[in-house]
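DATA SHEET
Item: assembly model
Revision: 1
Owner: S.N.
Input lines:
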Amino acid sequence: MSDYAIRVENIGKQYKIGLAPNRYRTLSETLTQTLRSTFNLHPSNFQHPNRIWALKDVSFDVRQGQVLGIIGRNGAGKSTLLKILSRVTEPTEGQAEIRGRVGSLLEVGTGFHPELTGRENIYLNGAILGMKRTEIERKFDEMVAFSEVEQFIDTPVKRYSSGMYLRLAFAVAAHLEPEILVVDEVLAVGDAEFQRKCLGKMSDVAQQGRTVLFVSHNMSAILRLTEETIVLEHGKLAFRAPTPQAIDYYMAAGFSQEGTRTWRDDEIPLEAAPFRPAALRVRDPNGRTVDSLRSTDSITVEIEYTLEAPITGLRVGIYLLTMRGEYVFTSFDTDDPALFEQFSVRQPGRYVSRGVIPANLLNEGRYLLAVNASSFRVKRFFQDEQALAFTVDGTGAPGKHWPEPRLGPVRPALDWKIENVSK
Amino acid sequence: MSQSTLTPPPVLLIRPTRGLAALNLRDLWVYRELIYFMTWRDLLVRYKQTVLGILWAVLQPVLQMVVFTLLFNKMAGLSAEGFPYPIFNFTAVLPWNLFAHALNVAGRSLVTNRNMLTKIYFPRVIIPLASILASVVDFLIGSVVLVALMIYYHLQPTAHYTIQITPAMLTLPLFFLLAFVSTLGVSLWLSALNVIYRDVGHVIPFLTQIWMFITPVVYSSREVSAQWRVIYALNPMVGVVDGFRWAILGTQPPGDTVWVSAIVALVVLITGLFYFRRMERGFADEI
């Protein structure tokens, strides 16, 4: 017996451009097309000029109990792949074998009806996700507790706040118990506390030995939850490796070259306004933007951005993560109360926020920078979890005369004194 | 065959289907609870935030019957083969509403539920089916009025008519089945077509309006001259209404033309199922 849960062989999916995903034909268009192709027998009309392969020749397998990450830019075919595996759409060619029941969280809250109460929606949504009625009844209290909407369980969900709605929706989905769970971007929404809870639930699922396919743009989540990751590029499987390497490959293939990350217009969500990120840079002490630095040098992190309108209480900052997804630290440009006072309202204009990571702090290895711009408890304007990666080279670091890897993300030069107190 | 019906098969093969796809009845069985929940949802949503609630299922056909009686009987002078017009009309309004309401809701159902179709797998036929079943519940509630009318005319016989309990009434389930088959068949066609051609959504209201006039709802099918009866019965709802009237009121038996209606209904259902299955694989991409 083989122990794979999913085996994908040469899967391909073709879409007609302009038709997918949101256009539909009208009768007259089809009639004219039919007439045209009947009377105009030119061979080129039988070609399919307006078709693209959203996915082509993708093959991989997933072991039983493995948590596999899937990353790729928008339009790389991630969602198409998940839709095929969860049987929402059919492949154009190739085949996939799946062992076990597939539960998909392609989007939480599918089938939620605004007019129905929380209680009614739990039953309905549970049934849509493939749960039996007895199963829903058994887990009902647990789901309600998880969602923290007990008081409003008999209120129509149209009166819920978006946070409550989301929590309830995720509560139902999280209590599915399929052998294979397919997750797409559920963590992209909700507040930090909710995201933490979701991640916890997901790692529970993974620890129970169930197979999980996890698609996300959230690199830290991918790093924390998966051991192996595949990278999709233009509908093809570009790379498969242990997650840290896969993310590295992905970042290197992207727009971040040589210590600089810029954002194209279509990468900046509308909600970010009036904040517009321009660039994130990592500079060495000589002011050069670099991909690799020495741990004995200080590291300057620079965020350049434009404000189109004044923002009150803005803080722009970074998260530093290791390639295994552990947070090293969080720091904002207005952490100093005096600066926060001075920039209590930041006026429109072009800004650069610059912070210096002191020398002799980080251990050798590869690190990930995430960017956050927010007003505390008011609004998160912009966040990019995968902004930029850089390497710290350990030459000359403390303790380098022993050729051993040091545990932990930091390797500070502590102020050691040795005193002989035997007197 | 040896598969347990409760657990899906251990290995699922996903690949493009080609040609005529068979109906996946086993999946439909596995998802039977979803049919129930979707029907329940359709009913709940229909009567949420209404003052009269489910009472509308009674009120609607009654009001229709009153209007038809005033308009077609009192003003236009249409006769009812000697039966009291209100009950003569109501025996037709009941199955007709099942058909017309279901067409309106089920025909658009796939498009209204598009966010489900693009996110989750389940047998797609459940969506129009649940819309129809919700209309069946309305039909059953409306039947209470029919029974009330029958009791009324039984206690107060008009000059030349009284309601009798007859063995013919036992055939009612068969005519109900005919109504259901016709409704499902036409709904499958319309809902699948509507995914690709949204024109269908605009056509349905006209379609049901015109269809009502080629169905003996406000008049008697005896008004149609004998040589046209067979062609007339190509409309399966003719067989349904004639059957209902015969079983309940004791009008002239529907005769051989009811077989024409039944065959047409079956053909529409079978072709509808195949068409639906054929289009199903593209729903998530086309919708």
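QC remark: The two ends of chain B are 35 Å apart (CA to CA).
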